[in-house]
Every structure is written in structure tokens, then in C-alpha cells.
Amino acid sequence: MKRILKITFIVTALTLFFASCVKDLNTTPINPKLITPENAYATAAGYKQVLAKCYAGLSVSGQQGPAGTPDISGIDEGFGEYLRAYYYHQELTTDEAVVSWNDFTIRDLHKQNWGSGDVYVAAMYYRIFYQISLCNEFIRESQDSKLDSRGISGQDKINCQLYRAEARFLRALSYWHAIDLFGSVPFVTENDEPGKFFPTQISRADLFTYIEKEIVAIEPLLIDARANEYGRADKGALWTLAAKLYLNAEVYIGTPKYTECITYCTKVIGAGYTLEPKYKNLFLADNNTSNEIIFPIEYDGFKTQTWGGTTFLVLGGIGGSMVPADYGMGVSGWGGTRTTKPIVQLFYPDLKNGLYHSATPPKNTKAYPLVYCPGSYQGWDPTNTSTVIASKASDSKYEGYLYMANTNQQFKFCTTPSWDHNFGGTNGTLVPNGDNINVADAGYYKVNIDTAALTYSVVKTTWAVIGDATPGGWSNDTPMAYDAASNTWTITVDLVKGGLKFRANGGWDINYGDNGANGTLEEGGDNIAIPEAGTYLITMKLGIPDYTYILSMHSYDHRAMFWSDGQNLEINDVGVFTDGYAVTKFKNLTQAGVAGSSPQFPDTDFPMFRLADVYLMYAEAVLRGGGGGSSDGALGYVNAIRERAYGDQAGNITSAQLTLPFILNERGRELLWECQRRTDLVRFGQFTSGSYVWPWKGGVKNGAPTSAMYNIFPIPSSDVSANPNLKQNPGY
Amino acid sequence: MKKRVLWLRYLILFFALASASIAYAQEITVSGKVTDATDGSLLPGVTIAVKNTTTGTVTDIDGKYSIKVKKDAVLVFSYVGYMAQEITVTEPRTLDISMSVGTKSLNEVVVIGYGTVKKSDATGSVAALSSKDFNQGAIQSPQQLIVGKIAGVQVTTTGGAPGGDAIIRIRGGSSINANNDPLLVVDGVAIDNASTSGARSTLGMLNPDDIETYTVLKDASATAIYGSRASNGVIIITTKKGATGAKKFGLEYSGNISISTVPKTIGVYNGDDFRALVLQRYPNTPGVDTLLGKSNTDWQKQIYKTAIGTDHNLAFTGAVSTMPYRVSIGYSYQDGTLLTDNMRRTTLGATLNPTFFKNYLKVNINAKYMNEKNKFADQSAIGDAVAFDPTQEVYAYGNKAQTIPNAYGGFWAWLQPNSDPVTTATTNPVARLKLTDDKSTVSRFLGNAQFDYKLHFFPDLRVNLNLGMDYSWSKGAKYVPTYATWQYVNHGVSNTYDQTKKNSLLDFYLSYMKDVKSISSKFDVMAGYSWQHFWVNNNNYNGNVPHDSAHADTIIVKQEYYLVSFYGRFNYTFKNRYLLTATLRDDGSSRFSKSKRWGLFPSVALGWKINDEKFLRDSKVVSQLKLRLGWGQTGQQDISNNWYPYLPIYTQSDRFSMYQFGNVWYRTLRPDAYDPNIKWETTSTWNAGIDLGFLKDRITASVDYFYKNTKDMLNFIPVPAGTNLSNYVWTNVGSMNNTGFEFTLDVKPIVTKDWNWDIGFNATTYKNKITKLNISDDPNYPGVMVGGIAGGVGNTVQIYKVGYPINSFYVYQQVYDKNDNPVEGLYVDRNGDGKITPADLYCYKSPNPTFTFGVNTRLTYKKWSLAASGHANIGNYMYNNVEANRAVYANIFRANGPWLGNVTTSVTNTGFTNNQYLSDYYVQNASFFKLDYLSLAYNFGNLVKNTLNLGISFTVNNVFTITKYKGLDPEVNLGSTLGIDNNMYPRSRVYVIGVSLKL
After folding, report:
1. Helix A258-269 and helix A235-247: axis angle, to 10°?
2. Which of A130, A687, B69, B383 lies in disulfide reach of B983, CB 3.0 to 4.6 Å?
3. Chain A interface includes B16 (CB < 8 A)
């Protein structure tokens, strides 16, 4: 008995003791980097960090850049990034883009042959709902009662309320993408806490009403247009969203709302945004300085890295003979995206065989013996290697071109980059250590010396093209212009089939042609053949031999930014990068031509909403019969865009030319690759069916009609199965 | 918390008991000789142990022995291959024994969870192997000892890297996304089998030479006592203990020298053929010919070498007074066959197993320590060597564009016109190996102290306390210079990391055993408690060269979790023939919320020893016949990288993933997806088995049928859009079952004094099927695409789909022309809608074998022995990623650069120009038979009288493989890439000369 007592005692004691160990199970995270909601929302600064994620959801793929801890799974992180997925849906499905890669079903997008099991469609869908869930969470956590319970008051509270309104804007933006791409979708708001449930499916009409109501509700809560920090949404962004929703209302709900569209466009236009003076600057590494961009998605070479976004836009389109460094990139391009012929023809209506491009001259100039030409025009610097002349035959005869920006300059010749061996001279005779040579006029001079015969000549030149291909024929010069920054002579000119040469000073004393059509010029060389009539850009670079030129078809419209060298206009094989023209619009270069901070990831932001788009929406809504706008206003806005594109009024149109088909084409020119095209084509009834076909639409080289079901994307089959409330879109 | 108090309490108890006086009984001397019962020959080396003590002796060369024992001691005579005998001695006498051959001692004991059981009394599916059964030759990790040896246990080495890591699957694994590794218990310590940073193998701290037995618990009735961690089976490893003989001191040495070779490489074009191919394929593309070099470089030859390894093990055994000990030192030096790969591993082991108070208190102390120094080769070089242009030289520049001498480390590389590297081009594999400096040092300590005390006042009750710890410290650094082409844009790599892991364990149980003869019943009841704590701290400092803030990042992960369990087992034996085992375990895990935390895991098993029934008891033919039937449930909570799946957590972005407001970049905070109601995954297992023995167990066999059903699977799967903070969430969804048969056969066709021949054979067949995968139960659910491959971006070739085995291939059906050649890009329109979309993908085959078998044999003649072992998988398919990626002509020339790349010669089988990643052509039959080793050994016997035994052996590992598979090796199992063969580190063929010495 005593024994049993002992045992009982031991067992009881141990049981009590072990029971207390069970409390260990209530462990909480010990990692200081793991943050609970209580920590995250303890301060307004914490709220701002969560808000930053709501924005970053559009930009990066996860919490590690460029990849590592993805926001959504089941898809490669690059593909799952919001903008890249959006581009795939809005551009790859249209005439504006094809891709050569062989990744899973990626080519089905351009063929308009996707199914409900498509991983890219799923990536877009889940990315949209990720963004909506993320914003829901923030909206839930930032309601006044929660702010109060967390002791956030005063200015902090006002800030958090603004953050909340911005999150509601971002949610509305994604719901707009949902209604546009998928139609009728699951509907969740901040009232749906994370858990296991089946969201109901909202009709396209009800979702339209919901977004409309949200826009009305958010408007007074948001900060005035252009008054927020860069990157954050303001009333301008909201108005643009509203304008886009209403412009497409007829597609979404069958009821036109063009008047409402004009109302919101007018608000944006009156808010003080201005067109960026140079179109190309909108897509450069420092485009954050532009006053045209209403709402950007931001990227940065080091701080905001992704395999999607503008990294994809820049690198994805570099391939063939393109040199990555020309686009500010230090890594090789991905050789993927190009555009189709109809898009090129928007800029070159008569183009048939492709953009002619003369032979690319050798990139590296041969190293000839040099004579240095220090002078007052360049600061008397005998080491300056850009002001030299060279001996092509490595003999005593040197030749080259020097540019004197001002009048009354003096200079000398040095045979080494120092003053040790210098020549001056007068009247064509070289004198060692002689007097400075005087040049009275400003201009571009051909300079020759002979160090054996001790002679020199300095002849002012102005350059022109002449020939039966040129407007002046073989009798009249067509003058070129000198560009001091690039040290080139250029001209944009309409040429006809025939030949041309370069000549100076209206005579044949100094003239260059091209023997062997290799891109290098020879004195008195052969005529340069122009194979086809068209607008050409001619660039001639003299300086020191070898003298070179580039002659390529060109558009007066500066928005034409294509790479045609080595590319075919026609796409015979979608999988070959050199079939189709590359688009060189997005670059990782600043306006000054300097590469962005990182060789791998561009600094370039993406202009999600910008003023020119609003101008065009205004004009279209007016043309479609919306009230509250004016035809004159519409024409004025369109011509403002045209004037920027052409650099002068040469491209302006008349009111008779301002038609709906013109608007669609102009949107194609202005907004190429800016993720507008699919929505535009759907609105114009030209996305599916046979009203408009383009290369490889429908999987056929010349294009084929497709079913109207492809006007919206399927709800991914994985979600249809996961959520019994969902009904698949018709046809899928 | 209280654990420190507890340790203290038991230390006090231990010393109090140890200091008690010990009385000795009267001693008597017994001597005699031992002979073979069949031919009367004398048997040297027979072990004579005094039961329940640590004393004993062995017979000498003339079969004679002499031993001093206490009165009434029980002597146990045992000899390998013979049946053991027990004899009680009461007075000094001569005791001659004749022993007869038999295969198994009837009293053979196997280790089970928290205790032992006589093999003949086991009711569950338990397989045991002892050191004599282990694989031989170049064994670098404990897992390699049992490759192919046990039915239902699939051990796959991960490749040819030194260190010999392997993946073990018992009856095919029970989860989709949660851990499928079996629980490993080493000397009573359930170890953490998550990988250790910088370490080669999960079991590296264990010297294979120190291992005494391997016991595999396969069915739930055997494993349920381990509850929450036992769904994938349990492997119990015990290490060798101190001497239990009269011999006070023993010394054993074993060592080997091995030569590893790469048996086979991928067939690619040589320089001359490649030049011809390039000119043939690109006759009109300007500039392509100028890219060609003049060399004939076999890049695979450049990166592989014949590797030398050596292994030394030294063990001291003996006893200091009543304290037997064993101390071992092991040293292993192994070069990889891949250039620059090297491992140096030192292991130390020590065990003490003293007993006190006439065996009332048994203490078992084990300590194992490992120090591993690694130099890792960058294995990307394997794929690079297949792909690199064979016309280029390793060092010199052949391309005119490459004008910078000695840049990029002097290695030949593809360069852009401005002399920057072409970043999309293949990296020079030799540069990759030689310019990468990737080192680690790992230390790991595994120790435990086990106290087993029979209560003085109540000897039927045993108290067992086991305190264990598994600590590891590792650190490493990876350095790639700025001029390495593949890291050029990143300004090189300079990463350092360190990791500390501390896992602690406390196990306590009470065991009560009673034999109540009056009712012919035996009771064995056990109840216990277990507490485990897992703690890890990872610090990763990633940066470039030299560290600058724009490129550097620090990632600190520090986490812990706890498991607390109560468990009990009831064994009941009626009339020595009818067996019942019931277990119950209640597990709590800190991974789950309070309301979902506890899981209850029961099991029941019945056994019937038919051979002990009257009608069979005296059978000369049937020596063993036992039926087993068991059912049980086990759990799973190990979702490796997610230790708080039920808590809402915000993750801060790193410095490359910030967002800019105004002029300030903000580190963002992301609310992560979570399931507040996540709970245990449960696996129910049915097992029915029969054990057979014939002719005194000269022939033994077992057959088991099992059915495993996992429900509430811990799954990382898509959830309805909008319902959580990501599209995939860790949650309990889905179920899956595994059904199969196992068969084991051991035959001893020849057993004579000079000749001995053993043959072992085992076979397993099982089927895996997913039965549920999402919460809505939609029969049209497409499934979850998995199995990412190399090539393109985001391509997958496998699926989890209801009704199919996990990781079924999910591909397009290739169309063949009339000559049976695949037609490029043409697939069967399986749904007949006139176009090829993902709806035409279909489930085609699985990487899991339908049938596996292992065979091993050993033939001994006097002092010679010849052993071999092999294993086979039948019906397993493999996605040949190397071919899918490299066997296309499009790889030859890339305008984007431009650069050239080699293709595999198998390109002629398809003639494909472009990659057809999703074609079922690349899903190839990977059935195989491998002869794992062939070993010839000679034992010289004792060189000096009664001592200094010398043995030598010659072994070849990985002797040959018979397969139809077109790739390098049909056996690929890297866990995450099951069934996808992509540039695996080739398994070496190893030639080993071994020496063993015993003193």
C-alpha cells in the first residue's frame, strides 16, 4: 500500500510539473523582423509602410527585390508582377506586340487562343485580387475606430485617413482592371476578413456601379491634383480613372457615359498638368520629373527591382543587333517583344518592304596617326582627342574637320598631345613653333596639313546632299544642318528612288560618296543608292577619318521609335526576334543620355496615367457624342499632341480629319506599349472578329478572325473550381 | 522554464543512487569448449555473455573458454549464423556446448519507440538491420548503409557530391507539401531533419562506422507512439556500445582509400563536328562563322576529375570498472569528381553505459560530434559544360571582339563589342568553378543521457528519463570576384552566413511489466511525456565586392517551436501467442493556434503467433508463422519554412523592394496570408502482415499489405481569389492515399562450416492517388501545376490532380510521323476543340516507381567473402530536362549577343529546331537496375595469438546500371524536383580498398 502511495505521489507530482511545460506551446515569434499587426499599426509611420505595399503591389513581385518572397504563387515572379501581367493582356494580345519566347502558353496570347487554364491569365487575375485583398486589409485596419483604439490622433490620424482614401483608390483601380479584363468577378471588400469562404460573383453592371460610387466617395477625401508626394495618388489620378471607366461604359454596361467622361477629363485638364515638351522624355530614367504624368508606377535600379515592370519593357525588347548600352542597360537584352507591321505603318503609311537602313558603319574608328589642334576654340588644350586631324595613309598628310563655334579663333598643330612639337603658320606654310593660325568666321572647317611639305589649308564647309533622289535633283543642293552636340550633319528629307552624294559649299571640290555601300565615305566616291521613296534621316559624321554616314527611313513624327536594322518588317516566325520591328521607346537613360543607376534594372517609371491620354479621351468622347465638351477643344488637344510629336505644326490635322478611326490610330501612335491597346480595340470593336486582323492574330501569319468571346478573359479554372459561386465567362 | 529545474532534480537523483554501496555475490568459474553441432568442429570467436551484465568472453582459436561468474548467472552463447543458447550455472563446472546453425535468434530484440520488443512479439511492421547487413564500400553517410535493403524504404542519394546526402521515403511519403522525410531517432533522440546551413548531409554528424542497428518502423501501429512526427515512418538508429566482455580493452581500426570516377557524361558535339554543324545550319547568316573558335574542348572533361578519398575510423572499447565505454574517431577526406569540390569531416563519438545496483539503474550516455569543412563547387558548371561552345579554349581569347587580355580572370568568355560580358550567354564552366570560393564549416553535437531505473521497492516498474540535445553551429562564405563574367553586373558576390540550431529534448516514461502466469498473461504498459524545443538563428549577409550599401542585405531569421506530447502503450500477450498492442499519443505543437493545437493519435494492433499453436509447435518445416494486423493514426505538422502559419504576420521588404513617396524610399510592410484555423494533418494506416520462417528459419519471409490515407493535408494551394492575402495559402485541404504490398525474403541456401551463402530479396509495389485537393470538391478542378523545369521561364511539367499520383507529368501528347519520329510542335488535340491549349495537357505517367526491389547476397568461404547488393525501380518515369533544354538546334546560335552554344548529340533523335518543353517525348521510362556494390574481402584471422585480426577488402560501388533511360542517370530524386533530370551531379563509380584491424 505504501508502495502504491509512493508511486501515486510521484506520478501526481510529475503530471503537475509536465502540465506546466505545455505552456511553452504559446510561443510567439522571436524573430525581430517578423512583425505582428499590433506592431505594424502602432504608429502612423507603420501605416505608411503598409500603404507603400499597396502601391508596391503594382510594381514589385514580393518583399525581396527582384525576386524571393513572392506575393502570389504558382507563377514565375516576373510574370506575376502587376505591370508585366497587364502588358501581356493589353499588348501581347494586340497588333502592338508579339513575343518570341517559348514559355508555356505565352504565344497563345497573341494568337487569341487562350483557355481558362492559362497561367498568364491566372497571374493577372490573382495579381488583381491580391491587390484588392491587400487594400481591403489596409482599409479594414485604418478605419477610424481602429485608429482611435491604437491611439493614433491629431495630424497622424488625418494622414492615416488620407492613406485609407488612397488605398480605396488603388482598390478601385484594380477593380477597374477586373471589370475591363474579366467582366463579372468575385467581389470582396474590407468587410470580408481573411478565411475560408466563397465570395459571391458580382455582375459587370453592379461592379460598374460599385466603382462609380467609390469614385464619388473617395473624391473629397483625396488630396488635390498635383499636391501629393510623387508616386502617391491624388484627385487627378482618380479623375483619370473615372474618365477611363466612363469612356468604356458602353462596353461594360451597354450604356454610353461619354458626358461623364468629358466631365472628368475636363477636371484633369484644368488641374495644371502640362504636356512634356519632348515626347521621348516620358519614357526615360528621369521621367519622374515630368509634369505630364498623372499617376506613375515606380521603379528604381536599386531600390525597386523586379523582373517585370520597366525592366521587362526595356530588356524584353532588346535583341538582334541592338546594343543594350544604347538603352542604358549593362546586361544583355532578353530578345522577346517586337511589334507588327500595321503598327509601323501607323507612322509610315506607305511602307511596304521595311524601313531602309544603310549599312551600319564600323563602330570603332581605326587608330590613325593624329595631329592635335589646340586653340582658342577648345581652350588651348593639346591633349584634347576630339579636336584632332588624322593621317589615313599613315604618311605626312593629315586631314580632319574642326568646328569653331565662335568668330576670330586661333589654333596651332601639335604632333604630340603636348606643346613640345608644335606648328603655326601663315598663308598655307607650316612653321615649327610658328604663329597661331587665325580663323575669322565661325563654322565647320576642313583642315589639311602636310608635315613633310610643311603646308596647310583651312577651308570652311557647309554641307548638303545632292542627287536625283533629292528634291533638288543633280542641280540643286539640299542643305544639311550641323548638330554640335553629336558633331554630325543631319537632314530629314523626302527622297525618291535614285542616288545622292554629299558635297560642300555648293561645288564638287569637296564631295563624298560611298564605294562599296559599306557606310564609310570616300572622297569622290560612288553615288549612294536610295532604293525606295520615303522620308529619310541622313546623318553624316566627319571629324576625323573614317568619315561615315547613316541613312535610314524616318518619320517626321518623333513618336516613331523602332529598331529596324537587321529586323524584318514581316513576321514569318513569331519565335524569331528579328522578325518584326523592335520598339525602342522605353530606355534606362536620362534626358542627358546618362545610363540609370543600375545596369540591370531601369530607373524608368511607367506612366500609368498621363495627360496626352486624357486629351485623346476627351476628343474621343466628344466625337462619340458626349456633352459638355467642344469640338474645337478636342481638335486643339489633339493638335497639341501632334505638334509635340512633329516638333512643328506640320503634322496638325483639320477638324474634318478628326474622326473616330483617326483617334484609334492616334492612340496607337501616342500610347504604343502603354497598356491601352486591348481596351481601345475592344471599344472600337476591332479586337476580336474579322473587322481588323493583324499578323498572327488567330494564329495565322496574315491574321484571322477570332471569336468575340476573347473580348474578355476567362476566370481561371482554378478559381472556378475553388469557388462554387463563380460562373465562367461565356465560351470558355 | 522548468526544464533546468528538472535536469537538476534528476542529476541529484542520479548521484544519490550512484553513491549507494554495491554488494558482490559469490563468484564461480565455468569453462569448456564450443563445437558445431553438425560436424563437431571447434568454433572460435563464440561470444559468451553473462545475461543482464556487461561481462563476458569469447572462445579462443581452439573453441575453448573460461569465465568467472556469479552463482545463478545465465550464460548466453551466441555466434553469427548459429542459434543462441542460454544456460544457467549454479556451480563451478565444465560446460561444453554444441551449437547448431540457424538464421535468427528467436530472442532477437528490436528497438521500438520508447522501448524494445522481441522480434517475435512485434505486432507492427518493423524491419531491422544490423551492422553485418549494411552496404559496404565508400559509405559517406548513414543513409547509404541501407540503400535497397528494406522493403518499402526507398533511399536515393542526391548525386555524386561528397558527403553522400540521401533522401529516404518510406512507403512513398504521406504529404504533398509538408515534410515527407521519416522521423530519425538516434539513440533515443528524435533529431531535426531540416537541413543545416553549409552541411552536406542531414546525418553527417553520425559516423556510419559507429552505427550498430537500423530499425525502420513502417506502419502506424509501430509509429503512432511517435504521433505527430511519424506519418512518414520512423527510423531508429542505435550506435555501438562499449564492450560487454571480459576483454577490458579493444581497439578497432578500419580505413579505406577510394577512387571516384565519373562513369558517363552527356553526349555533345566535339569542336570539329560542332564547327561543321554551325556552318551547315547557318550558311547564310553573316558573322556566325566568325564566332567559331579553333579549339576542340571537351568541357565535361575539363570540369570532372578522378577524385581521391580516404576514410579512417578508430574505435576504442572497454570498460573502466563497471563502466563500459566506446570512443571513436573518424576522419573522412573526399574530393568531389567536380573540380574544386572537397569535404573534410571529422567525427568523434563516445558512449558510456554503466549500470548500477545490480542492474537496477542503467545509464546510457552518448555524445557525437562532427566537424565538417567544405569547399563547394558551383554545380551550375555541370549544365554550362554541356552547353558551352566546344570550339573555344578554356583560357585564351579566340574571338576578335575580345580585346582585353587577362580580363575576366583570363578565362575565355562571350563578350559584347564594348568588351562587357554577354550576360545571357553560357558561362565558361571552368571559370565558374575556379573563380568561385564557397566554403563552410559545420560543427554539430548530438548528445543524450538516458537513465533507466527499476524501482528498488517495485522492480516491475521502470522509470526512464532521456535528456537529449542536438546543437549545430555553422558558418560559411561565398566569394566571386567582380571580374567573373556571370557576376560582372552585380560587382561580384561576397556572402557570408552563419547558423545556430539548438534542439532540446526531454523524454520521460514509466514502464510496467508483469507476467501473470496464473492467467497466462503478460502485461507491458508504458506511459510517458515528451518535450521538444526547436530553435534556429540564421544570419545571412549578402553583398557584392567590396561590400557597398547599394548591394548588401542582411537577412536574419530567428525562430522556434515547441512540441509537447503525452503518450502511452499497452502490450498484452495471452498464452504467449496472442498479442495486442495499443498506443495513444496526444501531441501539442506551437505551430497551431490554441484551439487547434492538440492532436490525438491512437493505434491498435493484433498479432497471432500461429507457429506456437499446438498443431505447428513441433513442425520441422515451419519455424515461424505470425499474423499481424494493425491500424493507427499519425500526424504531421512540419511545414518546413513556416513556423507560425496561424498568426497574421507582416513582412518587411528588403532594400531592393522599397517604394518611393516623394524623395523617400519606404520599406514596405506586407500582411502575409495565413489560416488562423490551420491544424494537424492526419494519416490513417492499415497494415496486415504475415511473417514466415521455414527450416529453422533458413528461409524467412514477410508479406505486408498497407493502406495509408492522409486527410486534412497541410497544403500550400490556391484558395478562392479574394479570400486571403495571397492566392496560395498554407491550409488543411486535400487527401491522398497510398496502397501497396511489401515482400521480404531471406534465404540461406548453404550453411556449412566453410561455406555460407545468404540471399536477401525485397520488393515493394505501391500506388499513390490524390483524392481531394480543394475545399469546394469540384470534380473539374484542374489541379495545381508543379515541377518547374530549366528552360524558358515558369514552365512546369507536373501536376497535383485528383485521381492521379502526386507529381504526375502534365504534358502535351506528341504526334509522331510514319517513321516514328516526333513532329516538332505538333500535339494531339485531346479535347478535340480544334486547337492546342492547356486544356489538351494530360496526365502522363509518374516519377514514382510502381515496383521497387532490392537484392543482396553474401557468399563466404572460410576467410573469403563476396558480397553484392543492388536495387531496382520499375515503372518510374523521368522528364529528361537536359534533352528538352539542350537537344534543339536553336541553341547553336543566338543573335542576341551574339554567341554560340553546344547541343546534345541526341538532337538527331528529334531533329527539333526549337524547344518543345511540354512534349511527352521528354517523359521517358527511367526503370533501372543498379548494382550498388560488389565487394570481395579476405580476413587473415588473428595475426598474433588471439588478437590483432586483419581484414582487407576491395569494393566497387555503383558498379553498373541497366536502363533504357536516355539521360545520364535514371535515378534522380532531389526532393523538390522529383522526376526532373536536369544536370545532376553524376554519381561516381568508386573503387575502394579497405583495411580493418582489431586488437
Report:
1. 150
2. B383
3. no
Output the pLDDT for position B406: 56
For B508-561, the pLDDT digits (tens) are: 999 998 888 888 899 999 999 999 999 999 998 888 877 666 667 777 888 888
Cell readout for A167 is 488605398
A79 contacts in chain B (CB < 8 Å): 793-794
Q: What is the pLDDT of residue B9?
A: 41
CB contact residues (below 8 A), chain B span 455-484, against chain A: 455, 457-458, 461
- Which residues of chain B are within 8 Å of residue A230 when distances are taken between CB atoms? 660-663
B549 CB within 8 Å of a chain A CB: no
Distance from CA of A454 to the nearest CA of B (A): 37
Q: Which of B553, B595, B793 to mutate to test the interface with A (most CBs of A within 10 A)?
A: B793
CA distance A635 to A655: 6
Alpha-carbon distance of A648 to A642, in angstroms, equals 8
Q: Which of B651, B668, B838 sits opposite A56 (nearest CB)?
A: B668
Rounded distance between C-alpha atoms, residue B983 and residue B269, angstroms: 17
Residue B367: the pLDDT is 94
Q: Do B727 and A118 touch (CB under 8 A)?
A: no
Please state whether the predicted TM-score (pTM) of the whole model is above 0.95. Answer: no
List, in sequence order, every beta strand (DSSP E) within B275-360: 307-320, 323-335, 342-352, 355-356
Chain B residues 726-765 with CB within 8 Å of chain A: 726-728, 731
Is 70 exceeded by the pLDDT of residue B458? yes
Which among B794, B40, B264 has a CA at the least distance from the CA of A76? Answer: B794
B414 C-beta neighbours (distance < 10 Å), count? 27
H helices present in B159-292, as ranges? 220-223, 271-281, 288-291
Does B867 reach chain A within 8 Å, measured CB to CB? Answer: no
Phi-psi region for residue A264, left (φ > 0), alpha (ψ -120 to 50) or beta? alpha
Q: Which of A518, A30, A523 is nearest to B560 (CA)?
A: A30
- Please give the distance of CA B996 from its chain centroid, rounded to a whole number: 26
**Measured between alpha carbons, how far is B146 from B132 in angstroms, rounded to an integer?**
11
Strands (E), A556-706: 562-563, 582-583, 606-610
Backbone angles phi, psi at A138, to 5 degrees: -70, -40
The number of helix segments (H) and strand segments (E) in chain A equals 19, 29
User: How many degrees, rounded to 5, is the angle at CA A370 between CA A368 and CA A372?
Assistant: 160
- Asked if residues B831 and B125 have their Cβ atoms less than 8 Å apart, the reply is no
Q: Please name every residue paired with B473 in a beta bridge, in sequence order, or none if there are none.
A: B443, B500
Cis check for the bond before A680: say yes or no (omega within 30 of 0). no
Which pLDDT value is given to residue B4?
A: 41
> Would you mind telling me the total number of residues written for chain A in this entry?
732
pLDDT tens-digit readout, B857-867:
999 998 899 99
Best CA proximity match to A299, nearest among A597, A576, A518, A99: A597
Task: Please state, in angstroms and rounded to a whole number, the distance separating the CA atoms of residues B648 and B859.
Answer: 62
| Residues of B whose CB is below 8 A from A198 | 720, 723, 776
**Residue of A35, A107, A293 for testing the chain B interface, max B β-carbons within 10 Å:** A35
Task: State which H helix or E strand residue B669 sits in.
Answer: strand B669-671
> Residue with C-alpha cell 485596419?
A141
Comparing C-alpha atoms, which of B934, B854, B745, B954 is closest to residue B147?
B854
Question: Distance between CA B291 and CA B288 in Å, rounded?
Answer: 5
Nearest CB to A60 within list B417, B657, B841: B657
Q: Do B564 and A24 touch (CB under 8 A)?
A: yes
Question: Per the structure block, which three cell numbers stand in for B122?
Answer: 512485434
Distance to chain B for A298, nearest Cα, Å: 7
The closest CB to that of B721, out of A126, A323, A599, belongs to: A126
Q: What is the pLDDT of residues B566-593, one digit of tens each?
A: 999 999 999 989 999 999 999 999 889 8
